[in-house]
Amino acid sequence: MLKLYFTPATCSLASHIALEESGARYEVQRVDFSRQEQRSPEFLRVNPKGRVPALVTDDGVLTETPAILAYIGQSFPGSPIGVPSDPFAFARIQSFNSYLCSTVHVAHAHKRRGSRWADDPAAIEAMTLKVASNMSDCFELIETDMFAGPWVMGETYSIADPYLFTLAGWLEGDGVDPARFPKVLDHRRRMAERPAVKKVLAALEG
Ligand SMILES: N[C@@H](CCC(=O)N[C@@H](CS)C(=O)NCC(=O)O)C(=O)O
């Protein structure tokens, strides 16, 4: 059975929702950041990067959200989260998810994880102050150029949707008013109404 290592309020939410949408049998294991469990020897044996998400499969452990989402999508082709067989259509989804992973998530991480990039407290403070404008720029691009609507890629729901939902949920905490991005905000509202999303969020709160 698939096993997802997750932490509430992190990017692992995207993989969690995708698993629920897929109809897969899976179990979850919480990694408690307040106890630094992501750096524990037990967890580092699962993911030496010390990060969530990590998905344990019969073939080994997968890390990196775009890879996990693509794996779930390819493993459950008939589900709402199944990925298209057309190479170009699939690459467009990967392009969107890669942007979220390599640019948007990294822009966000400068708020709490500045020590990854600098030791000087003034430099860390300067990076923190830049987060709101960087996240605004990213979501401006998503809103005006990248988001097709009604779902991220257009008419068909895809593995890009839970990922956008997850990162859009960080806007307020990053000092950005989501009302500036009506399409993204409406997407967030519609995502929150999906049974799979409701189920995962209820489980995380419980
Ligand atoms: N590129 C990775 C990023 C994973 C990542 O940075 N996860 C964060 C939570 S959103 C984490 O585990 N942070 C723990 C830490 O930095 O100690 C992905 O997309 O899966």
From TrEMBL:
InterPro entries, per the entry: Glutathione-S-Trfase_C-like, Glutathione-S-Trfase_C_sf, Glutathione_S-Trfase, Glutathione_S-Trfase_N, Thioredoxin-like_sf
Keywords: Transferase
Listed GO MF terms: glutathione transferase activity
Pfam families: GST_N (PF02798)
Enzyme Commission numbers on file: 2.5.1.18
Domain named GST C-terminal: residues: 86-206
Keyword Cell membrane: no
Name of the top EC class for this enzyme: transferase
Domain GST N-terminal: 1-80
Domain of life, per lineage: Bacteria
Protein name: Glutathione S-transferase
Organism of this sequence: Rhizobium giardinii
